[in-house]
Amino acid sequence: MRRFFNDLASKTGNWMGQPSAFIGATLACIIWAVTGPLFHYSDTWQLVINTATTVLTFLAVFLIQNSQNRDGVAIQAKLDEILIALKPARSELVGIEGLTDEELNRLKRALEQEVHGPSDSADLEPTVKEILADRGA
Questions:
Q1: Closest Cα to residue 135, out of 81, 101, 92?
Q2: Cα distances (Å, whole numbers) of residue 136 to 93, 99, 131, 132
Q3: Model confidence over 71-90: pLDDT tens digits?
């Protein structure tokens, strides 16, 4: 089931990103608008486009999120491989995507401090080494 969903999400995501999908959606809206006088701009006529766009958007969110999740994991794996392959790089950074937002922000500030030098509040900020050591604890 998971493989089927991944394949469906990939194919649908690729299709939705094509110009032909945009053109098709635009044509559907134009056809709907042109048929307004035919249906006397009824509530049902309006409900058709509202329901169709809402349902399609709702389903597309899940497909897009699945694709983004898989892409994110693949990118992290590739970056981890680069970190491992480069000797001067800190292999301790592998897997930091599991840190909390607060921990990631602290790590980012510490990395910036290493590059730009200490700021006025540098003595309050932990170093990258300290943050990564805390992660292992």
A1: 92
A2: 11, 11, 9, 7
A3: 888 898 898 888 888 878 88
